[in-house]
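Minimal example, chain plus adenosine-5'-triphosphate.
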Amino acid sequence: MAEGVFITFEGIDGVGKSTQAVHLCSVLESLGHLTLHTREPGGTRIGAEIRRILLDPSLQELQPQTEILLYAADRAQHAAQVIQPALADGRIVVCERFIDSSLAYQGFGLGWDRAAIARINSWAVNGLAPRLTIYLDQEPQHALKRAGQDRIEQRTLAYYQRVRSGFLQMAREDSARYVVVDAGGTIAEVSQRILDTVQRRLTQ
Ligand SMILES: Nc1ncnc2c1ncn2[C@@H]1O[C@H](COP(=O)(O)OP(=O)(O)OP(=O)(O)O)[C@@H](O)[C@H]1O
Ligand SMILES: [Mg+2]
């Protein structure tokens, strides 16, 4: 049985991950590959229950550590029930967000212990790691406008700038897995950059 390929898209809110993931899958399908497009939260039944807790505004007492663990728990279900079976089936799995999002948002963005986040998550997914991570890079001001946030507070902007520089640091530290793609320009221009990268990296 052929082993599939695990590709993740990362990047701040509104940068174009969903748009580009859908497009990449349709191009790969047209080239004869079997693909699976998925995203976090992982669309499992247990993941939906976890999501409900994460989004419930009445649960004010939710601790940041609990939040980190809940994201890891959702990821554990998603990896075991969705990603691993598709990889075992020989598919190219294109997933929006994975462990790097927890490292960028809770680690670099909010200052929680990155080594702990990495260890907890890696354990949660049985060591599953992407072969290629496409980081879509753009100034937060531009990406957040795409995400529909017109009025962005300075505090929010500073937070997203930490998240962005965290992603860029991770990309520098793991250049064998990561590729930084400029998310500026038209959807077609960004898709072409992504396709060039995927073809170059996956034929190496
Ligand atoms: N290159 C682009 N130029 C202009 N608009 C774009 C571009 N890419 C995506 N968009 C638009 O920006 C919006 C956000 O894009 P998308 O939903 O793909 O981002 P995302 O990274 O998945 O966001 P989120 O993190 O919120 O899931 C959508 O309306 C999309 O059509
Ligand atoms: Mg999206």
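The helical segments are 17-30, 45-55, 64-88, 99-109, 114-124, 140-146, 154-173, 187-202. The first helix runs from residue 17 to 30.
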